[in-house]
Amino acid sequence: MRVAIIGGTGFVGSYIVDELLEQGHEVSLLVRDGSEHKVRQSGSVRVVSGSIEAATSIGDLVAGCDAVIYCVGILRESPHKGITFETTQFDGVANTVDAALKNGVRRFLLMSANGVKHPGTRYQETKKRAEDRVLASDLDATIFRPSVVFGDPRGQMEFATQLFRDMVEKPFPAVGFFSGPNPRSGAVLMSPVHVEDVARAFVNSLTDDSTVGDIYNLGGPDILSWTEMIRRIAAATGRKKWIIPVPISLMKLAATLFDWLPFFPVTRDQLTMLAEGNTADPDVIKSLIGKSPTPFSLEHIDYLNG
Length: 306
Prior knowledge:
Layout: E1 2-6, H1 11-22, E2 26-31, E3 46-49, H2 55-62, E4 67-70, H3 85-102, E5 107-111, H4 122-136, E6 140-146, E7 149-150, H5 159-168, E8 174-178, E9 189-190, E10 193-194, H6 195-206, E11 215-218, E12 224-225, H7 226-236, E13 243-247, H8 248-258, H9 268-276, H10 282-289
Parallel strand pairs: 1-2, 1-4, 2-3, 4-5, 5-6, 6-11, 7-10, 8-13
Antiparallel strand pairs: 9-12
Helix pairs in contact: 1-6, 2-3, 3-4, 5-7, 8-9
């Protein structure tokens, strides 16, 4: 199958490209000018220069393809650079849907996120509107909503690596976020899912007609609190870490004052989503990849020592 991918130079996207090639697909990759060095598999893929804002670029990318995968997303906006949730998570999807329809590409896979909704944060709303745009089209679409994704970052931003750098590696105590009246009853829960499992779920679904029209929440086998994830990261990197419980409401107050600063670690919207939790049934991804998903264990986060 000839597959076009937008977002294939990112963390999850690069693993999807690996899996596509492993399963024998032909890959066309949209790459922004100046980012050609980010293409890990340059000798094995067709590279089209352009951006998600340019209809011509997307048209050139998808022409002659059988399927398209859109896996662009950001966690934080940079409006002064033109990087917003609206442009990357909705406009880019809408442009790609239009290009697919115009060029007769039937199969469309979209990476969304667990917990998207309307009304919600700007992140959640743009992701949800993108889902609605795809499902309302005449395409054979499948949507995936991963929980937090972990795995060897290969030079990209990745969840466990960011937690290590922001919380564990620093000389001061780590923050143990919780919502509600106390740490025990208000634990923030997540289902970390391995990037290779996510990639395999995407690629396996390409030729599985039973997945058309469905939305899949992807989570790993462990439902962990924020504090437990920090403990495992500390253990994997041979550190002992003092963790101070901090209510999300208090951190949101600080974010109200300082989240406009680039160095402030979290935004108000990120804290809002954190308080909502981020879990998923592991049987869902197991059914897509044909095996038990990879746990968030010391063995599988050993890359943090690299």
